[in-house]
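chain below, 517 aa
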Amino acid sequence: MIPAMDLNPTAAWQALAARDARFDGRLFVGVTSTGIYCRPVCRVTTPQASNCRFFANAPLAEQAGFRPCLRCRPELAPGLSLVDSPLVLARHAAALIDRAVQAGQAPGMSAVAARLGVTDRHLRRVFTQAHGVSPVDYLSHRRLLQAKQLLTDTDLPVAEVALACGFESPRRLQALLAERCRLTPSQLRQGRRGGAAPKAGAATQSPAAVPAGAGSTLDPLLEVRLGYRPPYDIDSMLAFWAQRALPGVETVADGLLRRTLRLPGPAGGPAESVALEIAFLPDRNEVRVRLAASGARHWAQVIEAVRQALDLDADPQGPATVLEAIAARHPGAPLAPGLRVPGSFDGFETAVRVILGQQVTVAAARTLAARLVQRFGPAAPSPWPGVDRAFPDAATLAAAPAEAIGELGIVRQRVGALQALARAVLAGLPLHRAAPLEATREALLTLPGIGDWSAELLALRCLGWPDAFPASDIGVLKALGLNGAAQAPEARAAAEPWRPWRSYAVIALWRALEAPG
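prediction:
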């Protein structure tokens, strides 16, 4: 597929006229007759080509004076994976900014540059070259879109929205909304609630809250939606999580994925737990996320976790040829177009489960992780039965007596590895997709109990790296017709043509083992 940056106006208009969801998040159109910019999947009447200006990202459209559409809502569009950016450094910088915004922090560009090991000047130059806007403008845009979605989809007071999105005051948020979007918070909410829509655009159609269900004594459920680019192999994604679901933490049934998340408390306070429900809406190329209104202040972190865990920002056209090649090797395997890489809802939780999975089956690793949850996982408020405990966080496992963990059937070396990992995470080891790949991988390899296999799996699932390849993985070797870790070099050689999509190849090879017969 042609990257949005390389599209000529004719090709871009054709993608818009076809409402081609593959270009969602890679292409935005500004309509000169209305002053509004839209996603290519917007359901309004297709504008005349002469009235269209095309942009590679939303900040460029806003910089040109267009305001976001209230119908297609650009903040719902999928983002870009690491390999989508022409400069990985710029993509890492954008991811760090995104993550800080989601946590309600105010990242200084000097800190971002230092984290990436470059100077401020070099970061600004590379970032502007890759994204077309400066890091400061990008930060402002991300905060504004996050605030816009919170104002549209929740009933949080404007002051709380401003604080959650990193604005120094509600007045600053309102001023930026008026300047960039030509809207007020009340106009956004008026349109959502079914009142008169603002003159400049259409109102959203989805309600902000839905009942929690019969018999629930908890808050109403907030509902938000996230877009993805089709095709998407929903069955394989749900099967992956169902096979690994931990009692109390996760359930997968009737097409719904429900689970708890342990998130940092406000102002560095104790961790808090939230419960969420995820449903796929394939007719709209979206997922619906529901969470209790009491967890609304964690909304941005929940959305980032869902995006990473479900690989919603992927462009399925990239790894398509790799998946076709593996399907040809394994006729009858349940491999469908749009296979995604199951990522991580919580980096520490996933890393613990990877360590517990060393040299054992998926079922055995699940049993050990379930014992950890039963012994150390706190209760979590939830409107759903069977989802009422959270996975223990790093602070809990770091402080736990080693013998208490060992009593669960976890061997001494694994206990040491788990507690070393917990201490490293508390000291700042990043386990999310904004983390720099090589530096994080090297840090992981210094920890006891983490070798190449574990580091590659963590790069694949926690860091969101599309080209990770655990060559010694038993499932990978078996699917390739190889015997034992001694043949890992042969596995690497076989996977060489699959760069830079080897992470997708790993998931496809695992899936291929589920072929009947």
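The first helix runs from residue 9 to 17. DSSP finds 22 helices and ten strands in the chain.
thats it, cya
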